[in-house]
TrEMBL record:
The keyword Phosphoprotein does not apply. It is an enzyme of class 1 (oxidoreductase). This is Shikimate dehydrogenase (NADP(+)). Belongs to the shikimate dehydrogenase family.
Amino acid sequence: MNIDSYTNLFCLIGNPISKSLSPYIHNTNFKYNDINAVYLSFKVENLEQAILGIKSLSIKGFNVTLPYKQEIIKYLDNIDQIAEKIGAINTVKNINGKLIGFNTDGLGFMKSLKDRHIQLKNKNILIIGAGGASRAISFTIANESIKSLTIVNRNKKRALSLIKDIKSKYKNLDLSFLEKQDIKDNYDIIINTTSVGMYPNEKEKPLDTSLFSDKTIIYDIIYKPKETLFLKQAKEEGKTTINGLDMLVNQAILSERIWISENLKIYPFIFK
Ligand code: ATR
């Protein structure tokens, strides 16, 4: 696709943005779908000015990353329901100057389960971590008729605050905090949302997976390395494992589907 006067610009705003894979994923997928668009990343120091620029240049859509996922909310005209519950935005659509906010992180996670025919209904889920990624995933799965959700996190206060927020939106959900040493083999799916085990600290793991039965699915949202020590141990024990690459690609493509068309295909990405 050649850049011409019809080319649409999409972008990422955040700070820092230099390590982001989003430009690669979006530009590859635009090309794959024959969409006349480019995706750039902008290091933003002043969010208000960036928003004015986006509006005046009629940029059709953009992603938001750290540290602006919450601050962006005050510049939006409308917010999608699940994004509102999460309290953070990673995708914005510009419709004739009106900005609508979405969060595709949790939905990208959900899609990776659906693609593997893994159902969440009546499942007991353990989430490790209580940061931004945990928030997006926790709220999204709280929507899915799960049996229980347990959160374990180094900082107990942060976990309790997340639990309080989820409880205020999902009153009937069986939701609890657990200290690491009290974890037992009670879970169908365990999800690591922390950075423990991520490059360059690949020798760490958030939990010992031998605690759990071989039927437990172990999901690590880290994608660098592709196989964390956490997943490696679980795989050696015969458990089903999922890494963060599908979630990474899915959240990006779900953004494109919001911006451009529900029918966009997904390029078969292979990451080293
Ligand atoms: P993200 O947006 O990627 O979720 P974040 O909001 O900074 O990033 O959250 C990082 C998560 O990883 C938190 O749950 C954090 O635990 P704390 O709340 O206790 O800080 C967790 N985390 C990061 N480094 C950790 C470590 N070395 N050990 C245990 N947990 C860690």
